[in-house]
Amino acid sequence: MTHSSEIHTSVAMLISVFGDPARADHEANSYEWHIELADGSKVHLRNLSTGGSAARVQPWELSSDTEAGIAQINAKLEEGENYYEGGLHPELFIKRDA
Predict the structure, then answer these.
(1) What is the reported pTM?
(2) Which residue in 4, 26, 28, 1 sits closest to 15, CA to CA?
(3) Which of 11, 39, 42, 66 has the fewest beta carbons closer than 10 A?
């Protein structure tokens, strides 16, 4: 069973938290990450729209073989967001619904 979620963040935030993507087409603004977590959960992350600027906050499909995988990725993004507070503007990296 696959669990999925949609997140809104930038390529810069994802690279800072998860490293280089498994697949990247910079001209098309198309990126994918394949992440295996410590508990064995496998996560796939890809942007839903292509084209435009990679610098903007954009929608991403987050899918995992476990619900725990989704939760862990969201927690890592929150840690990354907290890291940037003060030095850089977090709104450049992630969008949280208020």
Answers:
(1) 0.79
(2) 26
(3) 39
